[in-house]
Each structure stands twice: as structure tokens, then as C-alpha cells.
Design goal:
Blueprint (H helix, E strand, L loop, with lengths): L1 H35 L4 H4 L14 H9 L2 H32 L5 H11 L8 H10 L6 H5 L6 H11 L4 H9 L4 H12 L1 H17 L2 H6 L8 H9 L8 H31 L6
């Protein structure tokens, strides 16, 4: 018995050691980036690289803030992301719930259209959407950057799958008690969809935070640059030189909000993945 326990403990230790090695390999670029952001240009390229900085300096962050205008870009990215998330989560959750829980004409055709949008590269829609945004005078604005992503076929489809798991008996009981359809959605359906909404929120935020193609089309002025555009500006300047001392800390600033969001809502994200196989 003791031999079996010792053997199992040894296997657990080997498994833990292997997972730690894999985690280090996957995280090593991030660790290098964070460490290099506090080192001077001369220290960054030393061989071997110092994983623990000998002299911690914030001069690189100061350069990124001033040269790359990261402060303004950070504000633009936060504004666009919050604006997009508010509409994206509400519209997709409401649409997915309505499609699943209500019967109406052309319902099957609507589901086909939703699924069809998943097969189209988003870049195909940029030209007509740009003309629409331009006609409303929203070019080079926060709303113009966010409006194409208010709605997505993937978001609707994801919410449809989770809405199927909401028991119809609960909704019928609420109707019998006199609840309106809107109150049922906000007071009953939304709380039951919170894990799915958290998962969709993390994915949507990661997408809009790192979105470059559409922003590069709509943004015309330096004041409206988002973080991806500012990183590109630092990576390639007018004299074709890379501002490495500003690019590295700017990259750390850019990745921090996404990591924080995941760590805060990781429980809901895991719950949504674990319950994705639940049948309605």
C-alpha cells in the first residue's frame, strides 16, 4: 500500500514538473518582455540575457508614453472597447435568447443567415461598412471604430447554445406571475447567461483590443490612434528604425488589460466552457 502511494506521489511530482516546464516555455516570451521593459537598450541585447534586471529603470515607459503617445492611445482603446462591449454583449445575448425561446416567421432562415456570417471573412465587409460609417460622419471617431463590431454571428450563435439550457418552465412560471417579456429577460435570462456573457466578453474584448485592420482604415489623425496602431508606429518610424526602448514597454502596457480581464473573470470563463456541453 505504501509502495503504491509512493509510486503515485512520484508520478504526480513528475507530472507537475512537466507541466511547470511547459508553462515556463509558453510564458518565457512574456517574462522576457516584462524583464526587458525595465532594462536599457544596451542590456536588452546582452548574451546571455539577464532575466532579473540588475538596475530597474522606468525610462523606457517614459519614452513609450511620450514618443508613442501611449497614454492617448490607451484612452482610445479603452473607450472603443467599453463602447463595443456594452452593445456587443447586450445585442448578442438578447438576439440569441429571442431566437431560441420565441417562435416567429422566417426563424429558420434567420438562423441560416447567422451561421452564414461565420463563413465570411470580416475584411469582405469593410468596404460597405466604411461607406456607411463615412455617410454618418463617424470616420476618425470612437463610435466609428466600434460600430462594425456591435454585432457578430459568433456571439449570437454562442448565446443561442447557452439559451437552450434555460428551462422553459421557469419562463412560463414568470409569465403566469405577470412578468413582462423584457423583465423576464433582464431578471431571469441574463443572470442564467452570466457565465456565457463573461466568456463572450473576454473573447470580444481581446479581439477589439488587438484589432488593427479596421482601425487602420478609419483612423486618420494621430489623436485617434489605438494601441495596435501606436505599436506599429513605434515598430517602424519615418527613418525605418525600430524604437525598441519604447516598443517593449508599450507592448507590456497593451497586453496587461487583457491578462487582468482574464484573471478576474477566469472562473466564469471556465464555467462557460464546462457547461457548453449541457443539453437544453
Amino acid at each position: 500500500m505504501n509502495t503504491q502511494k509512493a509510486s503515485r506521489s512520484w508520478l504526480d511530482f513528475v507530472y507537475l514538473l512537466g507541466m511547470a516546464a511547459v508553462a515556463f516555455v509558453l510564458l518565457s516570451p512574456v517574462i522576457w518582455l516584462v524583464s526587458a521593459s525595465f532594462q536599457g537598450p544596451g542590456e536588452i541585447f546582452k548574451v546571455p540575457f539577464r532575466w532579473i534586471p540588475q538596475h530597474i529603470s522606468l525610462e523606457n515607459y517614459k519614452n513609450a508614453w511620450e514618443v508613442g503617445q501611449i497614454g492617448r492611445a490607451l484612452w482610445n482603446s479603452v473607450s472603443v472597447s467599453v463602447l463595443m462591449l456594452v452593445f456587443h454583449l447586450f445585442l448578442n445575448a438578447f438576439s440569441g435568447y429571442v431566437i431560441v425561446k420565441y417562435s416567429f416567421k422566417f426563424k429558420s432562415l434567420m438562423i441560416v443567415f447567422v451561421l452564414a456570417t461565420l463563413m465570411l471573412p470580416q475584411e469582405i465587409t469593410f468596404l460597405p461598412v466604411y461607406n456607411l460609417v463615412k455617410s454618418f460622419g463617424l470616420v476618425d471617431s470612437h463610435l466609428g471604430l466600434a460600430i462594425p463590431f456591435f454585432y457578430s454571428g459568433f456571439g449570437v450563435f454562442l448565446m443561442m447554445q447557452f439559451a437552450r439550457a434555460i428551462p422553459d418552465e421557469i419562463l412560463e412560471s414568470a409569465r403566469i406571475d405577470g412578468c413582462s417579456e423584457y423583465r423576464i429577460f433582464f431578471r431571469i435570462a441574463l443572470p442564467l447567461l452570466k457565465s456565457a456573457i463573461a466568456a463572450l466578453g473576454i473573447m470580444a474584448f481581446s479581439f477589439i483590443w488587438n484589432e488593427y485592420a479596421w482601425a487602420n482604415i478609419v483612423v486618420l489623425s494621430d489623436q485617434m490612434r489605438t494601441l495596435p496602431i501606436s505599436l506599429t508606429f513605434l515598430a517602424k518610424s519615418s527613418d525605418n528604425s525600430v524604437k525598441i526602448s519604447a516598443l517593449i514597454p508599450a507592448s507590456v502596457i497593451a497586453m496587461t488589460p487583457v491578462m487582468l480581464l482574464f484573471f478576474i473573470f477566469q472562473r466564469q470563463f471556465v464555467e462557460s466552457v464546462a457547461s457548453s456541453g449541457v443539453k437544453g
